[in-house]
Description:
By secondary structure, this protein is of the alpha+beta class. The protein has helices at 2-43, 51-62, 143-150, 152-164, 174-196; strands at residues 111-114, 119-122, 129-138, 203-211.
Amino acid sequence: MAEAAAEEPKKKPPIVKIILFVVGGLLLVGLGAGAGLFYVKMTAPPVEENPLAIVIDKSAAAAPAADAHGKPAAAADAHGKPAGDGHGGGDKKDAGPPGKSVPSTEQFATTYFEFPGNFTTNLRGSKRFVQLSLGLSTQYDKAVIENAQKHEVAIRGEILAMLADQTEADMVGIANRKKLQEMFKDTINKVLAERAGFGGIESVFITALVLQ
Length: 212
């Protein structure tokens, strides 16, 4: 009995060695793992040089920016204009081809005046008579129109004398009427030049013409 009790303490040392061995192994494993993580951290490339990070950054840059309402903005084309849907672009309709620009020319105000009443006279070699209305225009100042009004009686006398020397054929046709208008202009400017010192009438218009 005494020998059995004396042998039991001798069996305990191997168990202690096993425990120490296991603990020591775990410590070595832990130290190895820590050293491995430290090595990976020290040898890993910086974030800005990480290819994965670069890909993510490029993807974010390619994505369209959101507008004030959180909706993605339209992508721009090669000229910096918003890309459309292929049917005119965005919500705007195709305006079509550009029109020609109006040429820039110096403009002057035109003043018009129409003689009150009609000019009525017999025609040469005919029993018929003509009745017409006349208007005139100028781009000179209002003094020209005032002179025409002031000397209306003299102008009427010259116009009626000229009309009385025309035939029925002279009253017919666009070409003849334009010729009459030029003749009236020359007659009026002649009267104004003689009585006011300056003509200034640039156009004369037949506003009505009746043969009776």
